[in-house]
Amino acid sequence: MPSFVRRTLLAALAVAALLPAACRAEEPAVAEPPKLPEGVEPLDAEMQAHIEKLKAAAQQYRGLELKNKNLAVGQKTREALKKKVVEMFKEEMPKEVLSPLERTLKNFDLIPQEMDLGTYYPELLTSQIGGYYDPQAKYLVLVKDANGILGQEMTKKLGKGVADKMEETVLVHEIDHAIQDQHFDLSNYGHDKTMSDAAAAKLALIEGDATLVMYGYMLGVPMERFPGVDASLDMFVSDPVQMANMMPEMPGSKEIAQAPAYIRDNLIFSYIQGLNFCLQVRKAGGQKLLDHAFVKDPPKSTEQILHPEKWIAKRDDPVEIELPDLAELLPGFKKTSEGNWGEFNTRLLLAEKLGQAQRKKAAAAAQGWGGDKFALYTNGDGKEVLVWYTAWDTPEDAGEFYDTGDLAFKQGWQKALQAVHEDKGVSTVVLVRGELAKEGFDAVKEKLFALKLARPANANLDLAKLGITDEDKPKMLGAGEMMKVASDPTIKKLMAAGMGGGEGGEADVGKLLDDPRMQDAMKQMGDQMLGEGGGDKMKELMKNPAVQKMMQDMLKQDAAPKGQAEDGAYVNKDLGIAIKSPKSEGWKIDGDPPANMGVKPLVQITGPDEASIVLMLQAMPMQVALEQVAPLMEMGPQMQFQNYKRVNAGFIKSGETKGYELEYTGSTMGQEVHVVQRVFLRGPKMLLVVGTGTTEGWEKHGKDVKAALETLTLSEPAAKKDAPKPEPKKEEDNVLKE
Question: Taking the model in full, what pTM does it have?
């Protein structure tokens, strides 16, 4: 997409997707405000001071300084800002550029035939505009609005405090663009070409970097330090429509969700797929490798953005294609536009032709893309011929694309497959659309099949030559650090909002379970656990309102009586629970630990090397027998942990109280762990006792953890000792039948 996308879209959609947290940087001294262009109002003193804090945060999380710290930042009213965006659009997209783009998109059926792109696109962008950084004039403009960047509805949903934090992250994103510009000169970066796959890849690098900085600021920790965070991004990139609908109150979300897929998905691609690419680069070589991408070796295709390993590990640059002018084979026609799609837009195009339900099939058919070029030819009568020449890594890749194309490109299209190109084994496919007789198509096909293709050198990265060592790579967060981040009230409230929660910040389980992505996950889980047909049964079960209410109730927690943590032990007389800490050095007891992802432990005992013991009391939707709980205990770890392996399982006793123990190993969030999990029933609630550590930590402290678990004692709660005893019930009334 053209450069005005970067200049005007202020990451509102990206903000809606993940989890912010406050940055706790000190307020730096305020520099003298610089001069601003005519028509841009200066910020007030309070906001200017706030911007200085955010400048410091952006520099911290990017790892680069603002060379000119006196960055010009001003504001415009929302209407004035929209007017400026339209002016910028007309300046950067004059008719001679916009018209060929529009005709090409319509020939590929990527936008409606009746759409006026010059009117529609600026309106779409300004529906969620919050400001922009202009790399030509070197200044940043913010929206001036009493309701803030996020608007009245979003502020009401989240509360002003959380909304303010989200707005801060948006500003950090844009300040990072200024940092990029000062170090890498964005005005000459080459990401402003229309219908260019290489330009789309560079734009993804730019926006992905700024989004990564933004999320580092949100979380208070660089995002690349979170184990397994890249895997969690898959849900967001798998369905752009669902992502756009995640927070419908966000300005522009409705308009983006309803936009043609080409426009919507390309806007989101730059931010989220770009984020994943930059995240992988940071994980592989830290800031040094990311700076190398900007300075000397930017990604050359959206294929490399979609598959970062094709840039980082096993380089796969696109085949260089010089498409000849075919006008001599098309009498009366002249070329009016040309470009290339890359893997991402080839995938998108196939999905549009096949239907959104076939997104996976489209993605599979687009893999193995090696290069492509298209050209649009027009004659004086307004007739058009579209030629698309594609190169593929293997004959199998070309064959799969050709076969899928038989389903996708039907009326008005002609196709031909060259399974093995004479030049270095490249396979190619030609597609032509328009009023072209068979002999004309054959002539075009033969000329294109005779092209000499330039295969890339594909030199893999040598991190050592770039001066990159293990010290430059990010250090993964430990369990304690992750719990601290997850306990941040702002993060929890945003998670709930993303799950459909309201002003109270409580997650809407029904909405979460109705999400098609969650439905797919439920089906896969059911098929694995219950065999063929089990997934469909589980999907239907999760649609049941009674089941959804039951799960919602289970997530609610009544405030439990606090216990006492002293003299190396935790005692809660009101609940009748006591446990001792390991006697070895380095163990600490927290009798009032923060909630972790909505669950507040009774006590957390932490030790060296990330070893820990946690006690949690969880409400049960109905009273059940321990024998019925035991088989279900293994379901959670089996789904959560990779390489799950049971070490031991069986019934145990704590004094006179019967319980069940499950011991297992596995990997989660990039770490190998060892877990001992015990469960006891306490009336209508379940007491869960979990001892855990990394595999290495368990070798050192596993005996201490197990010894501490043996000290757990369960007695009659103090509050119930004097309470009248209820009439005894028959056993069948207390047990959930099979």
Answer: 0.71
